[in-house]
Amino acid sequence: MLYNVKKIEYPDSVHIRVYGRPVQMKTKISATVKTPTPASSHKVPDSPRTKEQIEHSAHTSVNRTVNQIYAISRSNHWTYFITLTIDPNKLDNTDFNLISEKLNIWTNNIKKRYAPDLKYLLVPELHKDGKKWHFHGLFSDIGNLPLEFSGKVCVGKFIYDYVRKPYATKIYNLPLWKYGFSTATKVRDTAHASSYITKYITKDMSQILANQHRYLASQNIDRPVEKVYHIDNDILQYALEQHLDKVSYASNVKIPFANQQITYLEFNR
Fold first, then answer.
1. Could you tell me where the Basic and acidic residues compositional bias lies (predicted)?
2. What is the tally of structural domains in the chain?
3. Axis crossing angle, helix 51-74 with helix 190-197, rounded to the nearest 10
């Protein structure tokens, strides 16, 4: 099945993607595997991929992860944006699998003892040296999770003492995180926080974590409702024109190597 429109429903808005070139819907097809005959048993080696194909594959991989994280994030209302660093004296901050395992144990303990309804989405960030990891995340329904005011506040990327700017966003610490430094700040806008957290997904990170989960999410997290359609261009254009006054965001992206153009539109509910 081909489609040229994808609709993604979020709690506070509806996101529409219009594809200039129809997209093939991925389907899983099961088939009986036949034993190859002697004449066909010799596999022809794959041709080496071109530089353009490799770049396209890397770009597609990053975009897929970014879209997944953004869609999940937008489907939930968040309370805190958190950062968790890893002290190399307490935990090997170059071992992604070990850190992920400790994070899973830590979040499970929080749910058992402090916040049974905790929702979280955690995204790794790779240090500039290409080896060390730390995590950023979004939390909601934190229950009785302890927070300690750090005495600091932030205005954008700038940090001040609370006495200088008492009206600014307070920075808290999470005393239960024993593996390094932690911060937590209030989320004012879920859409903004969703866009912000995807910036940590880079090509280098995606290549290092190939065939691995590139984010951690709680099982009770809400997922977006997605639907696809194939709509005649004239009818689609007319329908969009009737609702232009409700558009809160619009952008047009060209993807030359995929011979594709995507128009992104967001409508407030």
1. 43-58
2. 1
3. 150
Nearest residue to 216 via CA among 92, 121, 138: 121
**150 to 53, 155, 173, 183, 184: CA distances (angstroms):** 48, 15, 6, 9, 10
Q: Is residue 97 part of a domain?
A: yes
Residue where the block lists tokens 């004239």: 234
Predicted pLDDT at 30: 37
Residue 40: pLDDT above 50?
Answer: no
For the beta carbon of residue 221, count every other beta carbon within 10 angstroms.
16
Whole-angstrom distance, CA of residue 213 vs CA of residue 75: 19
User: Is residue 204 a part of any domain in this protein?
Assistant: yes
Structure tokens belonging to residue 232: 């005649």
DSSP-based helix, strand, coil % in the chain, nearest 5: 30, 35, 40
Task: Among 78-87, 192-201, 247-256, name the most confident range.
Answer: 78-87
Domain that holds residue 128: 80-217
In the chain, the amino acid numbered 159 is I
